[in-house]
Amino acid sequence: MSFEADIIVMAADVPDVTLVAEIKRGKFDLGATEARLKDYMLKRRCSLALLVNPETTRMYRDTFANFTPASVTLVGAYPTSKLLDLDPVPEDERGLHDAVQQWLERLASAWPSALPSSDDVRGPIVEYLVPSIAEGRVSSGSLG
What whole-number distance in Å separates Cα of residue 128 and Cα of residue 97? Predict the structure, then answer.
């Protein structure tokens, strides 16, 4: 089964994928999901990815050091509630997908209004996500 990203962010004026997000709920195989996500990032030359579940959001960055899965590193894992500034975080996959997509759309269009209030998660958002997705195009689904 091929990997299909749940949310894709494209650059504003060119067809480059700048971020992909995978939404999961319940139990899932973290190792296998990370491997598929890293492979997708490498194939699309995508520099950032989010792996989101109701409890934790993991952020990955491709350093483009050697164009292998080893070049994709974990930036950090953050409480999803703090990242999205939501309490409670939707437990169902559709609700979580919608919350993440709306947050990314706000980051892309007016990023200061979408910054988390928590200092410990705001820093990585400003450092990694904002420069990559500001003014980008956020959409559901996959490029195929």
Answer: 21
